[in-house]
Amino acid sequence: MVVGALGCSDKTLRDEVFETYPLEPGWQWSYGRTLDVELLGSNAAVITLVDSAQVVTRGEEALGDDVAFVLASTFFTIDGLTFGQQFFQQTANQLLQVPGPGEGNHTSVLPKPGVSPKPSGWNLLSQNQVGESSRVIFRYPLIRGNRWVAQESPELVLREVVGRERIHVPAGEFDTIRIRTEVFGAVDFVYEDWVGSEGLVRREASFVLEDFLYRGNPLPERIVEIVQLTSFRPPSS
């Protein structure tokens, strides 16, 4: 899939080293998401679904004997408003996503087999289930070739820094780091994130569901998801 890159190489952007994600209280982001659902086979058709989200950083919250940064999200979908939150711990070496109080999983973007996919709560820094343990979202510094195991259960998640790109999205032009994620589980798929000092700028994901049911009959489908930053506001100085 073609991205709105302006052709800047790693050499052009090599002086900037990404070593922290903006989680200070007061950050605000708005995102737009497009889901293209392509029914394969004799009943070929493409269904496009559009939704959006607003995300804010709420600061730190106590988690037992520890604390975590909280990202609170509001999702505007065809089913109405939904809400979600994610919990993160950041050190000099990594960004961890941790289970929140009383919950072991976060909303998955993948529709269940046999259910028509709909826009719903979707995670901004990670896309599939988190499970009972923490997930390594980033391993710092984010430089080309850096590869790590983000999660081992319930799905194996591998992440790798592909390189640096300057891209254009509705919110403007950004110098970003491109990260490729491979997920091996009930449905294997790959997605890519473009992350900058302003946060997540763009995501692209593509996967095929083999056991989707159409009028009672199995019908494979391909889903392409694109998330783009539409606006953002850093904390007030």
Q: What does the model show?
A:
The protein is mainly beta and 237 residues long. Helix content is 2%, strand content 56%. It starts with 9 loop residues before the first helix and ends with a strand. Mean pLDDT is 77; it is low at 1-15 and 103-122.
In total, how many beta strands? Answer: 14
**Any guess at the CATH architecture of the domain at 27-92 and 137-233?**
Beta Barrel
Class derived from helix and strand content: mainly beta
Main β-sheet description: 12 strands, antiparallel
CATH class of the domain at 27-92 and 137-233: Mainly Beta
Strand order of the largest sheet: 6-5-4-3-2-1-14-11-10-9-8-7
Q: Look up the CATH topology of the domain at 27-92 and 137-233.
A: YmcC-like fold
Task: Give the number of helices.
Answer: 1
pLDDT < 50 stretches: 1-15, 103-122
Order of helices and strands: HEEEEEEEEEEEEEE
Which term fits the overall shape? globular
Query: Radius of gyration in whole Å, from Cα?
Result: 18 Å
Overall average residue pLDDT: 77
Instruction: Measure the end-to-end span.
Output: 38 Å
Strand coverage percent: over 45%
> How much helix is in the residues?
under 10%
Organism: Eiseniibacteriota bacterium
Protein name: DUF3108 domain-containing protein
